[in-house]
Design brief:
Blueprint: E1 2-6, E2 9-14, E3 22-28, E4 37-42, E5 48-53, E6 58-65, E7 68-71, E8 76-77, E9 79-81, E10 84-89, E11 99-107, E12 114-117, E13 121-128, E14 131-138, E15 146-151, E16 155-157, E17 163-166, E18 172-179, E19 185-190, E20 193-198, E21 203-206, E22 209-212, E23 218-225, E24 230-234, E25 239-243, E26 256-261, E27 265-267, E28 269-275
Parallel strand pairs: 9-25
Antiparallel strand pairs: 1-2, 2-3, 4-5, 5-6, 6-7, 6-8, 10-11, 11-12, 11-13, 13-14, 15-28, 16-27, 17-26, 18-23, 18-28, 19-20, 19-26, 20-21, 21-22, 23-24, 24-25
Amino acid sequence: MALYLSGSTYGLFTSDNLTDWRELQRIVMPEENECPDLFPLTASDGARLWILIGAHDRYLVGRFSEGRFSPVQPIRSLHCGNSAYAGQTFSGMPDGRVVRIDWDRWNVPPERFCGQMSIPAELSLVKRDDGYALAAAPVRELDTLVSARTDAGPLRLAADTDVSFPLADGACRIRMRGPRPTTGTLTMTVFGRPIVFDLAAGRIRVSRCEAPLGDGAAWDAAVVIDRSSVEIYADGGTVYLTALDEGTVMDRTQPILRLRSDTERLLDEFVIDTFRSVWEEE
């Protein structure tokens, strides 16, 4: 059992009867506090490793040896954004999947509730040249909610020219993939909300949030848009950003997706999925 103690200190405990607990060790996770989660993952190189992660999505990758957790690399961060907090995974998932849900915090005006739960995300562990990185992807079950699909890829964009697609009122997912240029910015405006992919600088920007993009030869992103939130999974999910604030609230008077690039650009994949509501209509 992982337990938050105080400051940035967590404790790991073990029990034979789930009543009496013995402390194994204490672990300091800088810039972290509260809501620990501890779970195993099999990495892309076949290694079976454990993840200790806190409320702010900073995590350690390690192994258990002689009853103690030993990190194999420095602490990293899974999430970029301003809303996700206290994510927790489900135990005992069929076929060994590791799925988690975050609490996206914000007092959405004028509603009388504090935020929302995130889209369930399946986690994986990717071995890279600089170590192991957690990756997140929207769960495959989202496909059961798709009521309509627009497949516009491959899509070639002219410089400084808008390309528009109509949107249905409600949540949607946009998937993009293309070669990584060394110059230029791609802006996608959805329900009046701009999402900027600065491919030259390697940055994603939405409202007051930013996330890095990798420097590979190609890039990819899945963007899930709901009435008040934007969730972005990029670079194979190793970049995970959620934004929930006044700058991400959907303008339902603008049911349009607009793409604009300041340079000529090719998108090998561009797909818009429209989701039906999870709530039963009355």
